[in-house]
Specification:
The complex is a heterodimer of chains A (about 100) and B (about 475).
Chain A (H helix, E strand, L loop, with lengths): L4 H10 L6 H18 L34 H6 L4 E2 L2 E2 L7
Chain B lengths: L7 H9 L5 H19 L2 E4 L1 H16 L11 E5 L26 H8 L3 E6 L33 H8 L5 E5 L6 H7 L2 E4 L20 E5 L2 H11 L29 E5 L9 H16 L3 E5 L7 H16 L17 H12 L2 H14 L5 H21 L5 E5 L15 H6 L5 H6 L3 E8 L5 E8 L4 H14 L10
Parallel strand pairs in B: 2-3, 2-4, 7-8, 7-9
Antiparallel strand pairs in B: 1-3, 4-6, 5-6, 5-10, 9-11, 10-11
Classes of the chains: A mainly alpha (about 100), B alpha/beta (about 475).
Chain lengths: ~100, ~475
């Protein structure tokens, strides 16, 4: 299953990544080779096999909905690239 | 003997007997770091001041004669993907910038509560994605046995730090072999516990269904002690399991008579270095002499494990790493609109391997490919797990090599990602199935590079594999070998 350059561009947009032309060529080749390797899975008969998302049998772990952490606005905002008062400052999200 | 060369259990005993203080031990460790880290580059961040403070507090506890745990006063290194309040956490990525965690990972909080001394944060492959520690955004860690070679990855910094006595023991994380393979390459002991045994809260997520925290130590007894200190239920991690934590050190009886050990035939195939196969086979004979019953077992879906792993892990990673968008924390690149800001921040912030994996995972989850890749991989994952379940009806533990070769050269596999992925061939099935496994030294190749033996256990049966490792150590001296820098 060869990968096309257009597919690489489509996936890059989905993943919010950007590549130079040279990186794109290299990725197309490298990812293509890896996908070819993945194709070995086609040989395995998986009819009727439940997909396994998790190694544990645990389903839902519930706990009381209580506040256990003290609010620490200063520490949280200290990691932000841009702030305004007690808020994160972000680029305009609606054009 | 320089106190930094002590094992955890030896150091702990000396601290209790007041033959050594935690301040002396901590000072010795930092001197060792100063003398060696310019050659091996294990650490990203050192915490000397807070370490000295913790050592002083530990000495007080020890003076009062009631240390809370064997870890009290012990200098430990931590991989730089654990959040520790007030200590810069990078995950070896530029995208996190100078991130200062506002809280402690549960394991860190527990270590602090036991008055362990945290020496610093060790190097890794960016976001724990890699098998060589070369994918760090900052620098490559060097293998202490041969500085031209990789220490393994992704917990390469932690394994190196333990091997050259830059700490008494260390913590790492293991998603596909990231504790065991570097432990093998550096000649130390590395244990990946059962999925759910140790809290993942505050560990920077890579592949959430497989990530697990574990110890990297100088011997099996140390691994037992460190595991005992970090294992247990944590309500903050919904996948952490509420099962009693056994006394792992008490399980080290040195008696394995009648224990049934399986040797999976699919793990001894072409591509393995001859010395590795010889050393592992010799270890199997050694364990048989000690009283274990050896049996060949079959794990028929082994050949698909690398493919399954790199679909599942990259899919989970693509989702987990979507949070790095330059908005609330980390790096934000200037751009003209929101989407451009996301793309520019991620382009600048992530390294090549991380981007490659995000691309693979996004592709495997995208419309039209989900069934062929992600769903299919999850089905084959179930078959891989079933192989282990079936084999564990007949045996109590399994023995395999940890890696197909000893440490490879820096740069040898960076141009061919698939070759790099294949170096995880013996470790990743264990993560897919959620099992515990450890690596311990079982010999050297002619270049004096250590060889790792992997012992795989039943779910939540860390005690058995630790005792097996301990028993093997009693009849061999491999684990005592240390590199000379």
């Amino acid at each position: 299953m060869a990968l096309t350059r257009e597919e690489v561009q489509r996936v890059a947009l989905l993943a919010r990544l950007r590549f130079s032309g040279e990186e794109e060529s290299r990725l197309t080749e490298q990812l293509g080779k890896i996908l070819e390797y993945f194709a070995a899975l086609e040989r395995v008969d998986t009819s009727g096999i439940e997909p396994m998302a998790h190694a544990l049998d645990v389903v839902n772990a519930l706990r009381d909905d209580r506040v256990t952490n003290e609010p620490n606005t200063e520490a949280l905002l200290a990691n932000a690239p841009a702030t305004d008062g007690n808020f994160f400052q972000v680029p305009k999200i609606i054009e | 003997m320089n106190p930094c060369a002590l094992t955890l259990h030896e150091a702990s005993e000396k601290l209790r007997k007041r033959e050594l203080s935690s301040q002396e031990l901590t000072a010795a460790v930092f001197t060792q770091i100063t003398n060696t880290d310019d050659r091996v580059h294990s650490y990203i961040t050192l915490c000397r001041k807070s370490a000295e403070k913790a050592a002083t507090k530990a000495d007080e506890l020890l003076r009062q004669g009631n240390p809370t745990s064997p870890l009290t006063g012990i200098p430990l290194a931590v991989k730089d993907n654990f959040l520790a309040r007030g200590v810069r956490t990078t995950c070896a990525s530029r995208i996190l910038g100078d991130f200062m965690p506002p809280y402690d990972a549960t394991t860190i909080a527990w270590l602090r509560a036991q008055c362990a001394v945290i020496t610093g944060k060790t190097n890794l492959d960016e976001f724990a994605m890699g098998s060589s520690a070369e994918n760090s955004a900052f620098f490559a860690t060097r293998n202490p046995w041969d500085l031209e070679r990789v220490p393994g990855g992704s917990s390469g910094g932690s394994a190196t730090a333990v091997a050259v006595d830059q700490c008494i023991a260390a913590l790492g994380t293991d998603t596909g072999g990231s504790i065991r393979q570097p432990a093998a390459f550096c000649g130390v002991v590395g244990l990946k516990p059962t999925y759910g045994r140790v809290s993942r809260y505050g560990i920077i997520a890579f592949a959430s269904s497989m990530d697990q925290v574990g110890p990297i130590t100088k011997d099996a007894r140390d691994a037992a002690l460190l595991l005992g200190a970090i294992a247990g239920h944590d309500p903050a991690d919904s996948t952490s399991v509420n099962l009693p934590v056994p006394d792992y050190a008490a399980a080290l009886t040195g008696d394995i008579r009648g224990l049934r050990i399986g040797v999976p035939k699919e793990y001894f195939v072409s591509g393995m270095q001859k010395e590795t196969e010889d050393a592992v086979r010799a270890a199997v004979r050694q364990l048989e002499k000690t009283g274990a019953v050896i049996e060949e077992v079959s794990l028929p879906h082994t050949e698909y494990a690398v493919a399954v792993y790199y679909i599942v892990a990259t899919a989970e990673a693509s989702s987990n790493l979507a949070r790095y968008d330059g908005m609330r924390f980390g790096r934000r690149a200037p751009a003209k609109n929101l989407t451009e800001t996301y793309m520019a921040s991620r382009q600048e912030g992530f390294g090549a391997e991380v981007k490659r994996r995000i691309m693979l995972g996004t592709y495997a989850l995208s419309a039209g490919y989900y069934d062929a890749y992600y769903l299919k991989a999850q089905q084959v994952r179930a078959l891989i797990k079933k192989d282990f379940d079936d084999a564990f009806h007949r045996v109590d533990a399994m023995i395999t090599p940890t890696a197909p070769t000893t440490a490879f050269k820096i740069g040898e596999k960076t141009q061919d990602p698939l070759q790099m992925y294949l170096s995880d061939i013996y470790t990743i099935s264990v993560n897919l199935a959620g099992l515990p496994a450890l690596s311990l030294p079982c010999g050297f190749d002619p270049r004096c590079l250590p060889i790792g033996l992997q012992i795989i256990g039943k779910p939540f049966d860390e005690a058995t594999i630790l005792n097996l490792a301990y028993t093997y150590e009693q009849s061999t001296e491999w684990y005592k070998q240390r590199p000379v820098l």
